[in-house]
Automatic annotation (TrEMBL):
Family matches, as PROSITE patterns: TPR
The protein's name in its UniProt record: Tetratricopeptide repeat protein
UniProt keyword annotations, A-Z: TPR repeat
Gene3D superfamilies: Tetratricopeptide repeat domain
Length: 81
């Protein structure tokens, strides 16, 4: 996941999304990958996909701190768009 931190630092959100999508295709139980995918999609303002990624992370890790807030924030942004 070091590679994606570099993408984030360089604001290369599309590459980060591509990377995490590949991970989630192979590791369907990787809640961290879904969480980071949601964050990258949030930066790209891709609200529906962002919510889905966060919901997948939540299903895999129901005790994930702050995830409900992130889902709510993304849904609010989606409603404004």
């Amino acid at each position: 996941m070091y590679k994606t931190k570099t993408y984030s630092q360089q604001f290369q959100w599309k590459k980060e999304v591509e990377y995490y999508r590949k991970i989630t295709e192979v590791e369907k139980d990787n809640w961290e990958a879904y969480h980071y995918l949601g964050q990258a999609l949030l930066k790209l303002e891709q609200w529906p996909e962002c919510v889905t990624a966060y919901q997948n992370a939540l299903k895999l890790n129901p005790n994930l701190p702050g995830i409900h807030q992130k889902i709510g924030d993304a849904l609010q942004q989606q409603a404004k768009a």
